[in-house]
Every structure is written in structure tokens, then in C-alpha cells.
Amino acid sequence: MIEVRVPDEQEGTKAVVRAWLKQIGDAVAENDPLVELETDKVTQEVPAPAAGVLTEIVLDTDAEAVPGALLGRISVEDAPAKARAQTEPETQDATVSEDAPRTTGPLPLQGHMETRLSPSVRRACLQNGIDPSRIAGTGRNGRVTREDVDRAVSSATVVSVGEPATAQPRHFSAQDIPHDRMRRSIADNMVRAVSEAPHVTAVFEADFSAIAAHKSALAAKGKKLSYTAYIVKAAAEAMAVAPAINGRWEQDRIAISPTIDVGVGTALGEKGLVVPVVKDAGSLTLEQIGARLDDLTRRAREGKLERSDVSGGSFTISNHGVSGSLLAAPIILHQGQAAILGIGKLEKRVIVREVDGQDAILVRPMAYVTLTIDHRVVDGHQTNAWLSRFVEILESWRAA
């Protein structure tokens, strides 16, 4: 008997079982996708560790899956016979072609169409008053998945349980947006974050003139960098004046991370937000940080991030200004962090500065920067010291 366990790489994220891709009694080959796990950031398939027959499911759909937890068991004894049995043709008189078009009407129950429903699908059908036989399944052998139910609810094309086939469809507002698992996870994390940690936010202003000049000089040499690369680099260097910013609250101590691992919020449109992590940013050059950001951002938007790409962050940056926000106070979502940096929209503003001993009115590219801290870990003077150093680094960047 082979055990299937939750992967260990799951730092700081809460995983749940999204769906089993095989059912008890199914034959599986080694490395076959077996079960899907999902956090608020990524979905991960757990492969079968060996060929055999799935004999037990320990954690069913929607169960919390902590690192190392037992998901199920595979028997390797009767794998060949079981595999042959599953590939033999059906003996019933009527079969359904896998190539036959699907409709929203009742599905045939004979042949090899899959009629078993997962607990998640059964629960969703009951909650929404939906007859699953009237949903066109897109899963294995036409099986109805949770996504099929959600799609049916949002499009209001299914008939309620117990109603005759001629009943009118359920009515929903055209503006209604059904919750997906990522939205529910984000909501749960938001509530937990603000209830557990006392949040305080400090606001500074930064002049990006030096950064803009440096970017232009590099661009002239054929090297393109985003403002975010400079922000990550400056944040990593500022940790020297207030190391606790790169720490976390523990019941008996403030634990300081040995590396500066910076998460950068990346919007995915209607699909929410992910936070890929630039690992050990304190040891990287500006150009190396820029290259890693480009890679992480591209894979985030293509849905190709690995669990390791979004785990292990010790500090987070929310560059909310890219969507037009001037000022915001993001909250600390990661339980293993003590602070989050917010960067507002970069825009030209009129400021007063002393030039040659005289006050001068200048037009400069400015942005509000905020640092929201867990007040259990960091006090006001550390917060202001960190922000002062961060702004100083940005404003004194030397030309390339």
C-alpha cells in the first residue's frame, strides 16, 4: 500500500482539496494527476507516486490539506488486472460516444458516461437547487465538475430539482458574480488578517527623479527595467536600519528572517491577485531583480506559477499605483510577515525644495509610499526609520 501525501512546500498558505481526478477503484499509472489542491494563490496537481489502484480517499473535496497530511492510499497489488478491466469495452446495448455533442438537457445514464458526483458537486447542486442530470459535464467521461455547476448557476440555464422539464430557469442579475474558490480564500484571509494583527500605516512621499534618470540612461544602453525592480532593491537595502520589518510575530519572540524574500502583488484581472516572491532579494543586483520580476510576472499571468514561486515571502510590496491609486493602506495578508509596502501612482506634482539656500518651486515625479506594520512586531520609530531610509535610497540613486 502506497501513501499519497500533501507536498511539504506550502509555507504560509492554506491549501484545500479542490477535486479528486481519480475515484476509489480506479487504476492509476505512476505520475498520473491524482488530486488537485488549491490555495488562494495557485492550484497544484498531486501526481500518483506509483502505479496501482486507488483504494482509499482520506481527505475528500473541500478538506483542509496541511503539509504532509495523508490524502489517500494506492494498492500496487492488483494494478494490471484492474487496468485491463477499465479498458475493456462496455457490454451494455447502448453506449454514448465521447465525441457526441453535449447539451444542457438530461444526460444518458447508460454506457460509459460518468454519473458519480463528488461531495463538492452534490453540495453545490443542493445549495442551488440544481438537477445535475441536466448539466453537461466536462470532466472525465462526461462527469459533472464543480466548475460545471458554477457555470450553470451563473448562466441560469439549468432546471431546479423537483421541477418539471418545462419550468422556467432560475433568474439571476446580469451583474451577479458567483464566488470562485480564490475569491473565497482571499475573503477568509482578509478577515483573519485584520482580526489577528493590529495594523498601523505611516505615509511618506518620494521623489522619483533620480530613478527616472537612471532608467532612461539604462534604456539608452538597451537595458529595460521597471520601477518595481528599483522599489524591491531599495526595500531590501532599507531592512538594515530596521531588521524587524523583515520579521514576524511568534508567541515567545520576534523571529527575523535570515533572507529578504520580497513578494510583489500581481493583479490577474477578474481572477484576483497572486504574490510571487523574489527570493533572497538582498543578495541580488538591480538587474537580477528585474529579470526575476519579469519571469515571475509573465508566468503569473499565464497561470504557470509553481507553489514555490508564491511561498516563503518575508515582506510584501503592493504597487497599487499602477492601476491609478494615489494612496492606499494595504493589509498584511501573510501570517509570517510584519509589514507591507504600498506604492501609489507616480505623477508630476509641484513641490517646494531648497535650492542654493533659497526656496524653489519645482515640478517632480512624486509618489506616496506607505508602510503598514503589525504593531505587535514594529513600533512607530522603526517604521519611520525604515521609510526614511527607503525614500533616501530612491532619491539618491546615481545615474548609470
Automatic annotation (TrEMBL):
Domain Peripheral subunit-binding (PSBD), first and last residues per copy: 116-153
Entry EC number(s): 2.3.1.-
Recorded superkingdom: Bacteria
Gene3D superfamilies cross-referenced by the UniProt entry: 2.40.50.100, Chloramphenicol acetyltransferase-like domain (3.30.559.10), E3-binding domain (4.10.320.10)
Keywords on record: Acyltransferase, Lipoyl, Transferase
Family matches, as CDD domains: lipoyl_domain
Cofactor (UniProt): (R)-lipoate
Domain Lipoyl-binding: from-to ranges: 1-75
SUPFAM superfamilies for this protein: CoA-dependent acyltransferases, Peripheral subunit-binding domain of 2-oxo acid dehydrogenase complex, Single hybrid motif
EC top class named in words: transferase
Residues covered by region (Disordered): 80-113
Pfam family of the protein (one): E3_binding
Family (UniProt): Belongs to the 2-oxoacid dehydrogenase family.
Subunit structure: Forms a 24-polypeptide structural core with octahedral symmetry.
Protein name: Dihydrolipoamide acetyltransferase component of pyruvate dehydrogenase complex
Source species: Sphingomonas daechungensis
